[in-house]
Amino acid sequence: MLREVDSLPEDIVVDEHVWITVSDGTRLAAKIWRPVVSDREPVPGLLEYIPYRKRDLTAIRDSIHHPYLAGHGYACVRVDMRGTGESEGVLTDEYLEQEQRDAEDVLDWLARQPWCTGELGMFGISWGAFAALQVAARKPPNLKAIAISSFTDDRYADDFHYMGGCMLSDNLAESGTMFAYSTLPPDPALVGERWKDMWRERVDAAGPWVDTWLHHQRRDAYWTHASVNENYADVRCPVLATSGWADGYSNAVARLLAHVDVPRKGLIGPWSHKYPHLGEPGPAIGYLQELVRWWDHWLKGVDNGVMDGPMLVTWMQDSVPPSTSYHRRPGRWVGEPEWPSPNVRPVALPLARHRLAEPGETVPGEDLTVQSPLSVGQFAGKWASYNAPPDLPYDQREEDGGSLVFETEPLTEDVEVLGAPRVTLDIAADRPVAMVAVRLSDVLPDGRATRVTYGLLNLTHRDGHEHPQPVVPGERCRVDVDFNVVAQRFAAGHRIRLSVSSSYWPLAWPPPEPTTLSVRTSSSELVLPVREVAGEEPVIEFGQPEGAKPISTTQLRPSRHSWTVSRDLVQYESALDIVKDAGTIAFPDHDELEVSRCAHERYSWVADDFETVRGVTEWTMAFARGDWEATTVTRQELTCTRTEFHLHARLDAYEGTKRVMSRNWESTIPRDCV
């Protein structure tokens, strides 16, 4: 539970709407919280730079942490990227060169303000974290430190687009989000009558971003741009990196710790795609207090010991029954002095016939085959959990019915895993384009199976993501499939289960046609990063999560969330329907602005016909105040044949009940070994 702080060390002043003009003359909209004392005693500046609308869509969250940080002696600047919120211009894709140049201009502006010392930090979650890391790699002179949550350093291999060369359904879902967000009108209360022209400019420049992403199905220059892993040495300022085990972005924390050569700290909790002080599943932590300590050290020069202790702190999760949502994950905080950690060693378990053999055991060579039905993956959950609606993986027993399964005997003692498990497979496929999905589960004594981590590999990417090559049907190859990084304690009496399937829909788009995989046991193995610490470990504790009191809102229409799996056993149509309806919220402090937001995703298929796979996203966003009302309705539909993807998108914009703008898009994109 977040504790609302009523009294802060500094009184603050808020500038609700400030224009920042960047180098090409475009004006970006900002909101600023800063200490009153900064009028005579300048303070360091903190920038959060995202496209998610400071006026309304992030207003509640912003009101929790920006005033808190400002009250501890910082000028906090929250900027909407060009083409979003009240900022001028258009937004046509993520992480463009223009976006990063704008950020550098904003930092330069901030450093020159009379109330700022010129010592600057950037922070954020998701896009805000991407922005901070990518801008840090450009080495702007006044950026002294960053604090980032839920991010990646590799835009192709470890974002919501592709995983192991397999296309994720979140590639479509996140395009749906930005198709909606990038076409919203600004608030007339701030920009006046220009709002109509700005809205039309956004709609005229719009398009479904997934069209672009589908034109880059392999790792090319489009993805290497702004991927920090291309040259970690570009990052020259201290980094505080956080994420959650229920999020899709946990891998990058470990990679960043291992590869950047700057003062750095890592923190991974049990959380979904949320800030640690708002973390779900719990326990949430006092992250804002940690940020204050971080900024005090790097921007004010306070010797507060913030770099003492472990380089990486993680929540070691205990065994739990499978569930699509947890209020709290049981476990404990553990610390590693460096990463990779000297406390972690690889333990190889050979694959035997339907079992994981003991380390060093010699097993007979057998070829085991699987052709998974399209239903394997219905209970996979989201690539990145938001915990609303409940979206974690459910009981894996039904998934395992369409998979090859290998598991240990009941464990005689607890086993702790920390890091990225890996499975090496001696494998063959009977089709030129094939994928393999691997899952690691904690099997309870009663048979319920909780997925712990998973990995994907498009077999045409077996030698790298830059130049995929079709599989020679029947030809054996050896491949390594990495799982997502995880911290998990498998309890004594439980089993560790490895599951292998040839599809994992709808989390990942399936291959063009059903595929039979053949796995040879004698030359395949699961490698676990087993954590063992001699002696008693120190207790790691965090403060209670706290923040400023959120702004006042009124829920006018209730929210509704659902996650429904359905099967029609007459027509053999199956579907996953996801509804994320935030209802209607009024903002009294913004002249009773009313905001409505509803998204519906549907992923469907018929029997095991791979050419019936379909993904649809629909968003309705509405804004109203008095006699002003503006609504956008956006829709994307993605289907496929064995050789092509087919994309249809539509946008309708309304003033009141009158449709004032309407656009349609059609696109056919060849499948590139996907």
UniProtKB/TrEMBL annotation:
<protein>
    <submittedName>
        <fullName>Hydrolase, CocE/NonD family</fullName>
    </submittedName>
</protein>
<dbReference type="InterPro" id="IPR029058">
    <property type="entry name" value="AB_hydrolase_fold"/>
</dbReference>
<dbReference type="Pfam" id="PF02129">
    <property type="entry name" value="Peptidase_S15"/>
</dbReference>
<dbReference type="InterPro" id="IPR005674">
    <property type="entry name" value="CocE/Ser_esterase"/>
</dbReference>
<dbReference type="InterPro" id="IPR008979">
    <property type="entry name" value="Galactose-bd-like_sf"/>
</dbReference>
<feature type="domain" description="Xaa-Pro dipeptidyl-peptidase C-terminal">
    <location>
        <begin position="292"/>
        <end position="551"/>
    </location>
</feature>
<dbReference type="Pfam" id="PF08530">
    <property type="entry name" value="PepX_C"/>
</dbReference>
<dbReference type="GO" id="GO:0008239">
    <property type="term" value="F:dipeptidyl-peptidase activity"/>
</dbReference>
<dbReference type="InterPro" id="IPR013736">
    <property type="entry name" value="Xaa-Pro_dipept_C"/>
</dbReference>
<dbReference type="InterPro" id="IPR050585">
    <property type="entry name" value="Xaa-Pro_dipeptidyl-ppase/CocE"/>
</dbReference>
<keyword id="KW-0378">Hydrolase</keyword>
<dbReference type="InterPro" id="IPR000383">
    <property type="entry name" value="Xaa-Pro-like_dom"/>
</dbReference>
